[in-house]
């Protein structure tokens, strides 16, 4: 059984990929409860690296492009600050998990085994897992070349397609809804190693979840929608909704995956007239953690609570600066609602008195814009480029994990 260091009075925690708003939230919550928190990211301007709740911060190499140095940098941080617990907040979780043997035995990595993370992240193998768990999911076709992609989208009058390894509303192919026509089929190049999934377009709003899991049991659950989104992709306002169905579905998927799983899981569903259909899994935190109370997160990470903490419907937070910026991008459409929200919805940074960290948010955007120009991709995609995992073998991974990864690829539907 996993015994997490948070059962001690004071824990020394490393939070990685601190650029994320939800990473900063985790830092604030654990730091405010007296835990020693250290943040790390691949560039110095990361907003989470400048929170007043930190005991220290560091810059690491890219887990994607320089995995060996990234692991070495993490080990340096562990030694310097005597770290007990690592909480990954993005896809560096895959690299840390694949290289778990190269981290000290005294450190708890709050992430599942690499094999299980890979099974969840690969949308094709996720499809098989969800069906096994008895959770509703749309009919899915896996396209491994351009010909099969075209045949798949021709099957559905309204379709929705994306790469098996994708995230954050990036690279979506559809002929329906606000993203219709944003990407052309000619720009999609599926292969056996990088397939695409095609599904009939399911009407209804997206419903997201965030869960902490300890020894196969959900210890906290937040189900939420995003009333405001940046460019119809990533959420910038978050409203908790009922968790009855998603809690059941999450536990079913965990039971089918690994009854000893420990880590953070986030699922996306579509609510089609009250019927939820599973779409994908991010085996890491998402903005739902922002809606949890600090003490709930702390206890959920240990598994000490007998029943899962469930965020009550109606709890709401927003990234006010992003909401305002989005309103001015489409003022006629958003400004009246935004002016109401700015005075009635609590900002994610409200009450923390940690404004210096948020002052570094523009540095993140500047960093993303610079990367975007160099790589000729959207800012959101560029911002995550050095910390994502797209199914490739990881340098230094064990032969066992390499074999499992190959098996995951072969078991696609």
From TrEMBL:
<keyword id="KW-0547">Nucleotide-binding</keyword>
<protein>
    <submittedName>
        <fullName>Carbamoyl-phosphate synthase large subunit</fullName>
    </submittedName>
</protein>
<keyword id="KW-0067">ATP-binding</keyword>
<dbReference type="InterPro" id="IPR011761">
    <property type="entry name" value="ATP-grasp"/>
</dbReference>
<feature type="domain" description="ATP-grasp">
    <location>
        <begin position="127"/>
        <end position="315"/>
    </location>
</feature>
